[in-house]
Amino acid sequence: MFDPKKIRNIAIIAHIDHGKTTLLDNLLKQSNIFRSNEKIPERAMDSYDQERERGITIFAKHTSVYYKNFKINIIDTPGHADFSGEVERVLGMVNCVLLLIDAQEGPMPQTRFVLSAALKLGLKPILVLNKIDRPHANPDQTLNQAFDLFLELGANDDQLDFSYIYASGSQGYAINNQKDEPKDLEPLFEMIIKACPPPPGNLDLPFLMQAATLNYDDYLGRLATGRILEGKIAKGDSVTRVDRNGNHSVHRITKIEGHLGLKKVELESAGAGDIVSLAGVTEIDIGDTLCAPDQIVQLPPITLAEPTVSIEISINSSPMVGRDGKHITMNKLRDRLNKEKRANISLKIEEIAERDDAIRVCGRGELHLAVLIEAMRREGYELSFSKPKVITKTIDGAVMEPMERVHVEVPEQYSGMVIEDLSKRKGEMRSLSTSEHGLTTLSFLVPTRGLMGYRNDFLTRTSGLGVLTSIFELFGPWKGDIVGRSRGVMIANSSGKANGYALFNLQDRGTLFVKNGDEVYEGMIVGEHSRENDLVVNATKAKQLTNIRAAGCDENIVLTPPRTFTLEQAIDYIEDDELAEVTPNFIRMHKQYLTEIERKRNGRKK
Q1: How far apart are CA 555 and CA 87, in angstroms?
Q2: What CATH number did the domain enclosing 188 receive?
Q3: Residue-number span of the structural domain to which 495 is assigned
Q4: What tens digit of pLDDT does each residue of 450-494 get?
Q5: Which one-letter DSSP state was computed for residue 561?
Q6: Which tens digits make up the pLDDT trace of 25-72?
Q7: CA-CA distance, 477 to 400, in Å (whole number)?
């Protein structure tokens, strides 16, 4: 058991792609916790399969290393704005944060959010000016911008006197001054020991801890992770769980787990300042208090910022239901979503009044919701979901909607086009600057509704050279109607297999979403029309064969490859009267209200 004075608890926070996970890789390697012949994976802390595939951190994760006679507990946090709830709930476990800022890009929207959250908790950050080895890095300018951001966010005098260091996470070195010779990360380790305060807490006081995150083990059940605030705990000790409603229950600790590098290690005991996972407390939820049975305490609940968008998840209602997945009933979907609700408090999952065939899921953005749906489809679930809707508030009789701070970087020749696009979507430009390298930086305040479906158009309009990031800023007055998708869709009027002859004749009408041989059904969206209106088409029509042969009458069919959708693109694409159908291997879209098809069908019946 470590003396609290020899423990340092830090979280690494930053905007997406500013180098948190890469820096942490080298911190682990240089702490000498691995064997000399041990294979260390790249981005070692991104253990979740979607994290590796998407190249982003989704869940906050814990590790610890030893430096000299100190134990340093490190939490790696997500950098994407949609997962900012993960950052909010772990900052209470640490006593200091490493704020990474790209020395070329400078502070970005998520930098602002995570720094604001840390400052409000009274934490004093250590600023790491990362990627100083990049060709156009300007660490001096970035340092000035960071100081201005501290001032803007209301940092106190002590927080404004922050420590800073220059680093290259990919090259594995840190230096105190730009003229120093780069060697390794020892200067950063030294700064952490010096600038990060030890955790408060007394080993002699009664045990006290709050569950900040949850894990699940098939054999142990739920494991509550958090920092021990006071006292100590040993395997077999009894603790009292106090839930958010003040209800008490007594449990016996069956296992204590800590972290060392990439491995979990079993501990016989732990004390104040340690970040550990405790097994044996059944049905524990995030924010619950664990305390000594003879000293009942209830800590304030963990509160997160509210979600801004919602979707409705229902069963797969298409004719192809059950062909691909194994969980297709509403009861199965409801059980899975309720399980997610208990472990992930940054998602809000609620029943819909007067509807038992759908559940509303609220989150921070399309990617936040897409990660949950992707996890479910990989577990064998089939489901449908609706177009995301923003969550509004009524303040003093006025309807308020979520607004996002948008940061755009584009080559100068595309800036006018982006300004025009975002202005049509009710965006207000806040700043514009162009560097000597011809790169224009724009800042906007845009309604969340205005960004839905725009990111794909943005990449197309800027030839893939633009960068657009956004983060929730505030609730502002309702901006009125906003332009949506500019083109209609092509809707199949019959079921069967898509035919090459039919698709060849349809591809002149727009962009196809299916290829020859794909299964389609009545009402399924098979392409995007080149005009504003929807078009009902026959994608299964085959060429009529005759017994008359004539030279040169056969057409050479050449089909353009169809447009395929990722889950996030499907969420962005669908309109209010459409649903996206998700199975383990397919993403399809169909009309929710098939008015034109139903009208034709009724006409045939008459």
Answers
A1: 59
A2: 3.40.50.300
A3: 489-564
A4: 888 787 778 888 888 888 888 888 899 998 888 878 889 999 988
A5: P
A6: 888 887 776 555 556 656 555 556 676 666 676 777 788 888 888 889
A7: 5
